[in-house]
Write the structure tokens for this entry.
Amino acid sequence: MITNAIKTTSNNVRRLHRRVLAVSLIGVVLAASGCTTVRTLSVQEAFPVSGRAHTSGPEVTVLPVQETLAESSESALFAADPTYLGKGMRALGMIVVLPYFGESDEFHSDVSRTAAIGSAALSRLNGQGIPAVYQLRGGVEQIEQLPADHLAMSLHLRKLKVDTEFDGVLPFIFVNAFMFKDTGAHAVLDCQLWQPGVAAPLWQGTVEGKHSAGNDIMVAGVAVSAAIDQCISKSGLLETRTRLANQRYSQLMASGREQGMNGDKGRALELYGQASGSALTTEQGAAAIRAMALLLPELAARPLLPEGARRLKVQAEVAVREKKFQDAADLYGESLRVVPWWAEGHFNMALVLGEIKNYDIAVREMGYYLQLAPDAPNARAAQDKIYEWERKAK
């Protein structure tokens, strides 16, 4: 009987081992092959770009983003797919030490990682009112082709990783459930700030951004934005841009006065217009407008709108008819950066700004109109509009 009991026990143990092994194998298959959710970062949503920055001053060119990622266990996946951002567990169940259930997330961008970094830089610069463009081709050697008062930003991606963060465990006798609650992102960039005509970078350094939140792929956008913001701040970009703009404004205003005294009124108007485009403060812009207003009556004829400005004028008028007043304001603003002496453009700009309740700037633009066209038939109505907006602005 003892022998039979031993045999029965042995058979039961073998059956239990087979069942555990079967369950474990099923679990390994489930954990490895199923229950993976692909989460994709929308770059347009994460890094919105207004399209037109409303401030004047030197433009910033973002050079094509380079990528050299640090070695990791996922290096092959990053190398094979330029949109890959990482993978992390969402939940994991185990019997003793063997997995029986797994749920994971795989993270991607809807464009390549380098394109996402370029879009982020453009978005963060435009968000601070800095005119910026993203250069799709070329490299540092292209800097010398930029205007002397412009700046260039060079970015080299070292790390952009999204993962899940361990939250806790639910213990049972033989079964444990591991939970991964938050999604975390880490971005590391080498950043350089360049100026045409200067052999070495004005600044260079490594910046990083981290962010974690709930089950949300947008953490990648927040982390990248934080790294870009560090690059803008640490490089002194804003201060350098202000210094260059002030230097250029002073030079243009002085040259305009010199050309006017020498009798070349057309060239003087052109230089004052460029000074208006370099102005960073309301006072500088107003001084350039006053200089143009004093010069215009001395011209034999008012200059015609160049074709590019006329195209923007027509498009702005279409936007007004469609009641897309913000678009119209953007288009008029772009045209006035080309032809700031255009009185009618300031008048129309003021009206569309009034429609979107931007009364302070509307008052300024209507004031420019009255300076540039003091004898206009609608001068009285324009001044009354200023009074109306001044009350609404309070």
